[in-house]
């Protein structure tokens, strides 16, 4: 049965469009012999677009994005030296707005090593875990304010929002993932100090644990989790945590697994009421933009996550396998350094073709 998916593509700023071009090549190669077509629509959004037009994200653009099956997203963000763009405008009014409006409550960040590919950790053992970060609540919802600004008595609040609905649905997703992986789930929070939210999270996990006897779970304070992620990352399978802890922990996860250029992520609407979005963890990397040297690996892995989400699991597996074998080959033969973005992209495409 032939099928067509409509994909919105937001290349964004800096290296975003450079790495997304390689992701698209990988997608086309992975689907070359399947009766599935991806129809791409490019959207120009990000800081360059904002400077040109004053648009961060119009309602019409948002509605048009909603109509797609998925969104492939590069990176947005200005050079921090560029004083023409007020800090946070693009992050808040574009990135966070997309996540909230499209109800991306599952922020998925798979983290793994590849045989032979070096990591900054002393222990060379491979690991493979996924962080399921809540994406629509916590301290990121803008629930706060300032009183007596600029005075001795200034008050600033940033209230973390945790709803039973919001916590339960992300915990449910994490249990499903753990059940289809190695059957281990770790709740990361700080419930000894953040007792109200922490208690809600803990009860949500206890309730779901009863439905998943095949999943064993444990609890870890977020500060301890940073130690274990460096000292013993093999112990993790699925980590479920709130928006802020997940943000911080996944940067660490990216760093310990061999680099930000290889870390993909997915912002998922679990009910499918709006398109999910697939984006590298890295930003627009203004320091290397335009030089054709950005690593497209994270973007290519995002393409794989997107295919998996669309139910095209065989094509998704081809991308994952291609990246896996190619990275290991570069590492073993020590030939991975100094390659351009397109050279890397082409290597992945040939690997994918060999698998189809
Ligand atoms: P960044 O991730 O863009 O860069 C950090 C460092 O990693 C830089 O040295 C960069 O060259 C390197 N790097 C990143 N991706 C790479 C790749 N694929 N290949 C090789 N090297 C890579 O983070 P930074 O510098 O803090 O932020 C730059 C801009 O990106 C800012 O405006 C920031 O707000 C934005 N940003 C956007 C994100 C998004 O769109 N999701 C996420 C993170 C930052
Ligand atoms: Mg972050």
CATH superfamily of the largest domain: Isopropylmalate Dehydrogenase
The number of domains: 2
State the end-to-end CA separation. 18 Å
**Name of the CATH architecture of the largest domain:** 3-Layer(aba) Sandwich
**DSSP E strands, number:** 12
Structure description:
The chain is an alpha/beta fold and 356 residues long. The chain has two domains: 1-112 and 260-356, Isopropylmalate Dehydrogenase (3-Layer(aba) Sandwich), CATH 3.40.718; 119-257, Isopropylmalate Dehydrogenase. It is 42% helix and 20% strand. The strands form two sheets. The protein has a ten-stranded mixed beta sheet, sandwiched between helices. A two-stranded antiparallel sheet has the order 6-7. Strand 11 and strand 12 form a beta hairpin. Helix 1 (16-30) crosses helix 9 (297-309) and helix 1 packs parallel to helix 11. The relative contact order is 0.18. The mean pLDDT is 95. Bound molecules: 1,4-dihydronicotinamide adenine dinucleotide (NAI) and magnesium ion. The site of magnesium ion has 2 residues, from helix 8. One of its GO terms (molecular function) is metal ion binding. InterPro entries: ICDH/IPMDH, IsoPropMal-DH-like_dom. This is 3-isopropylmalate dehydrogenase. Residues 6-348 form the Isopropylmalate dehydrogenase-like domain. Its cofactor is Mn(2+); Mg(2+).
Quick synopsis:
This protein has two domains: 1-112 and 260-356, Isopropylmalate Dehydrogenase (3-Layer(aba) Sandwich); 119-257, Isopropylmalate Dehydrogenase (3-Layer(aba) Sandwich), CATH 3.40.718. The chain contains eleven helices and twelve strands.
């Amino acid at each position: 049965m032939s099928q067509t998916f409509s994909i919105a593509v937001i290349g964004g700023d800096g290296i975003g469009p450079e790495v997304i071009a390689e992701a698209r090549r990988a997608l086309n190669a992975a689907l070359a012999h399947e009766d599935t077509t991806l129809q791409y629509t490019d959207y120009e959004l990000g800081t360059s677009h904002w400077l040109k037009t004053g648009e961060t994200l119009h309602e019409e653009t948002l509605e048009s994005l909603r109509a797609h099956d998925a969104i492939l997203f590069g990176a947005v963000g200005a050079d921090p030296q560029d004083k023409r763009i007020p800090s946070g405008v693009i992050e808040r009014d574009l990135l966070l707005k997309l996540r909230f409006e499209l109800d991306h409550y599952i922020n998925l960040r798979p983290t793994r090593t590849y045989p032979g590919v070096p990591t900054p950790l002393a222990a060379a053992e491979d690991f493979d875990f996924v962080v399921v970060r809540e994406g629509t609540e916590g301290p990121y919802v803008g629930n706060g304010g300032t009183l007596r600004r600029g005075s001795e008595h200034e008050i600033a609040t940033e209230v973390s929002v945790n709803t039973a609905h919001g916590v339960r649905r992300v915990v449910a997703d994490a249990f499903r993932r753990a059940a289809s992986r190695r059957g281990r789930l770790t709740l990361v929070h700080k419930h000894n100090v953040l007792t109200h939210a922490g208690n809600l999270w803990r009860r949500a996990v206890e309730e779901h644990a009863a439905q998943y006897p095949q999943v064993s779970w444990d609890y870890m304070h977020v500060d301890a989790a940073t130690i274990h992620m460096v000292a013993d990352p093999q112990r993790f399978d699925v980590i479920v945590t709130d928006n802020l802890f997940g943000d911080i922990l996944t940067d660490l996860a990216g760093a310990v697994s061999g680099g930000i250029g290889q870390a993909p992520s997915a912002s998922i609407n679990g009910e499918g009421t709006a398109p999910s979005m697939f984006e590298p963890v890295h930003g627009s990397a203004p320091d290397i933009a335009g030089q054709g040297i950005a690593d497209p690996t994270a973007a290519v892995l995002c393409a794989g996550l997107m295919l998996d989400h669309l139910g095209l699991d065989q094509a998704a597996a081809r991308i994952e396998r291609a990246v896996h074998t190619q990275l290991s080959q570069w590492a073993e033969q020590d030939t991975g350094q100094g390659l351009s973005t397109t050279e890397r992209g082409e290597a992945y495409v040939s690997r994918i073709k060999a698998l189809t």
